[in-house]
């Protein structure tokens, strides 16, 4: 793979020079001039229909799956005998006839027949001179002057005007000039790649996790509703939780990013919160009823007394949270059910616990509701070539000085994972939204982990932060591995810039991953 850097001095200078000088000084040699590209492996959303959650201020104009059928740029008109600019992209929902939603909050400036080739049109004015247009609609459900929220239904795709087949023609205008919607939307965390995205809740009605200012957006999903069958919960009502036990539930929930009600649901199902901790006929012990072999593998020191005791209420409760985490409880609603089934392999038990958890108030699991296939990465992938690394880092470097804002997806503010998501979007790669999900996405086959001393510019580093010691909560891009320098959205105080990741090398979690030579539109599969 050759030398990483020609000289430490060159990279030190690189950090100080303007972005326009990067091309002259950026001398990484990490791969061949052009590397064969392989198709991105996408993670599956765990919401209805495999949809991903809607995050940030921008989203695709469909909730369901769709295809890009015509790109932005010059083309032969499909109806008229002329060659002209196709000022947007054509998107066709699968199946056809889908509801069209607003890609961002805005004011309706046009709604109804356009009197021209685009048929029925809705146009929205957004902030900072941005406008979006939705054409060839079969139905329009808004009127001029309406204020719409991101994701609000506005009509139905159709084939009105000069059109061949049912589809949506979607445009983005900047100060009246059309721009290619694909890269523009991707850099705002809303790639137009055909993946279904769940409905956006109206303002003030969605999940509202209590997160610190240096957290990231896209975090938090509700516990799934209980289903059928149920057994114990049909005859045993939930009982009040003793104050000392509730304190342990809440402490473990904070550490493992779970609703305390989920742990209370297990405690109620197993022992009535410690009312009956006798060893079961199968040999399970303690408040949360662990089998000794399972406890030996997943037991933790919940009360920090230096020992791990299966009969300690604190150790039992914290170990239950640790076990649920290991069994995938953060992998969306299916992950919650999967983890509970692993705890006690019966569907009625899963539904009993969820019934009790709902009775105790339910709550949010602090994770992104997607499921990335398990794995340890794909070291057989070639790395990104020099030009793509340069493009990505040039863009990331151009964001220096911008603000850090929880949930922001650009262009004036970012959080840690939205910045890396947008940086990779500049080279045609779509990633999940959150830091933990981005790491799992790499492990699913889109990259591979490398030792810290083999880091190269453009690698991603991950460590635990606001979500506690068991979950990745921060991500950034390696800028200069010789000096442990990053380009990242660091925190609300420092914003986006070049910082050192050296202080985090001794965190509970610190990993460096290399993105493989992948692209959303590549023909080859890994």
> How many strands in all?
26
Main beta-sheet strand count, sense and barrel state? 10 strands, antiparallel
Fraction of residues in β-strands: 15-25%
List low-confidence stretches: 1-31
Structural class: alpha+beta
**What percent of the residues sit in helical stretches (DSSP H or I)?**
10-25%
| Chain-averaged pLDDT | 90
Rg (C-alpha, Å): 25 Å
What would the principal axes of the Cα set say about the shape? globular
In DSSP terms (H or I, runs of 4 or more residues), the helix count works out at: 13
Q: Could you give the distance between the termini? A: 20 Å
How would you sum up this structure in a few lines?
The protein is an alpha+beta fold. The chain is 25% helix and 21% strand.
Task: Please give a structural write-up.
The chain is α+β, with helices and mostly antiparallel strands and 526 residues long. The strands form seven sheets. Strands 3, 6, 7, 8, 9, 10, 11, 12, 13 and 14 form a ten-stranded antiparallel sheet that branches. Strands 20-25-21-22-23-24 form a six-stranded antiparallel sheet. Strands 1-26 form a two-stranded parallel ribbon. The protein is built from 13 helices and 26 strands.
Layout: helices, strands, pairs:
Layout: H1 8-16, H2 22-25, E1 38-39, E2 44-45, E3 66-70, E4 73-76, E5 83-86, E6 89-93, E7 99-101, E8 106-113, E9 120-125, E10 130-140, E11 147-148, E12 153-157, E13 168-174, E14 177-179, H3 181-186, E15 221-222, H4 232-235, H5 243-256, H6 260-271, H7 292-298, H8 313-326, H9 332-343, H10 347-359, E16 364-365, E17 370-371, H11 386-398, E18 403-404, E19 413-414, H12 416-425, H13 435-446, E20 447-450, E21 460-464, E22 472-480, E23 485-489, E24 496-500, E25 510-515, E26 518-519
Parallel strand pairs: 1-26, 18-19
Antiparallel strand pairs: 2-17, 3-6, 4-5, 6-13, 7-12, 8-9, 8-11, 9-10, 10-12, 10-13, 13-14, 15-16, 20-25, 21-22, 21-25, 22-23, 23-24
Helix pairs in contact: 5-6, 5-8, 6-10, 8-9, 11-12
């Amino acid at each position: 793979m050759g030398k990483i850097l020609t000289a430490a001095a060159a990279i030190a200078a690189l950090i100080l020079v303007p972005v326009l000088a990067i091309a002259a000084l950026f001398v990484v040699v990490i791969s061949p001039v052009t590397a064969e590209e392989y198709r991105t492996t996408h993670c599956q959303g765990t919401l209805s229909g495999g949809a991903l959650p809607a995050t940030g201020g921008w989203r695709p104009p469909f909730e369901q799956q769709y295809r890009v059928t015509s790109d932005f740029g010059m083309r032969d008109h499909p109806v008229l005998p002329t060659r002209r600019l196709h000022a947007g992209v054509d998107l066709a929902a699968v199946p056809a006839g889908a509801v069209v939603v607003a890609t961002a909050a805005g004011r309706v400036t046009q709604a109804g027949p356009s009197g021209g080739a685009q048929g029925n049109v809705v146009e929205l004015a957004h902030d900072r001179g941005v406008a979006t247009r939705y054409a060839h609609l079969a139905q329009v459900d808004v009127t001029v002057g309406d204020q719409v929220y991101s994701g609000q239904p506005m009509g139905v795709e159709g084939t009105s005007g000069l059109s061949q087949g049912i589809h949506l023609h979607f445009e983005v205008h900047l100060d009246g000039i059309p721009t290619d919607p694909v890269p523009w939307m991707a850099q705002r965390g809303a790639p137009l790649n055909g993946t279904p995205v769940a409905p956006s809740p109206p303002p003030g009605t969605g999940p509202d996790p209590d997160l610190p200012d240096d957290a990231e957006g896209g975090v938090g999903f509700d516990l799934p509703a209980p289903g059928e069958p149920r057994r114990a919960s049909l005859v045993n009502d939930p009982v009040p939780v003793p104050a000392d036990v509730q304190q342990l539930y809440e402490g473990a929930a904070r550490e493992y990013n779970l609703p305390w009600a989920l742990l209370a649901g297990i405690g109620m199902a197993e022992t009535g919160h410690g009312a009956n901790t006798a060893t079961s006929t199968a040999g399970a012990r303690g408040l949360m009823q662990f089998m000794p072999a399972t406890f030996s593998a997943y037991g933790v020191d919940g009360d920090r007394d230096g020992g791990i005791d299966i009969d300690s209420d604190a150790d039992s409760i914290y170990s239950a949270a640790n076990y649920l985490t290991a069994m995938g409880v953060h992998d969306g609603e299916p992950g919650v059910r999967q983890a509970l089934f692993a705890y006690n392999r019966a569907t009625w038990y899963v539904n009993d616990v969820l019934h009790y958890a709902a009775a105790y108030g339910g709550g949010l699991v602090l994770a992104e509701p997607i499921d990335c296939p398990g794995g340890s990465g794909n070291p057989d992938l070639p790395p990104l070539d020099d030009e793509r690394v340069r493009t990505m880092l040039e863009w990331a470097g151009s964001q220096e000085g911008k603000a850090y804002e929880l949930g922001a997806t650009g262009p004036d503010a970012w959080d840690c994972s939205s910045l890396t998501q947008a940086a990779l979007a500049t080279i045609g790669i779509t990633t999940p939204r959150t830091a933990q999900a981005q790491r799992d996405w790499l492990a699913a086959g889109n990259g591979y982990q490398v030792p810290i001393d083999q880091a190269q510019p453009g690698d991603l580093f991950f460590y635990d932060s606001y979500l506690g010691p068991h979950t990745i909560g921060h991500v950034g891009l390696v800028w200069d591995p010789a000096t442990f320098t990053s380009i990242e959205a660091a925190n609300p105080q420092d914003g986006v810039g070049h910082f050192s990741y050296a202080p985090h090398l001794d965190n509970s979690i610190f990993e460096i991953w290399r993105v493989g030579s992948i692209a959303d539109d590549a023909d080859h599969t890994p």
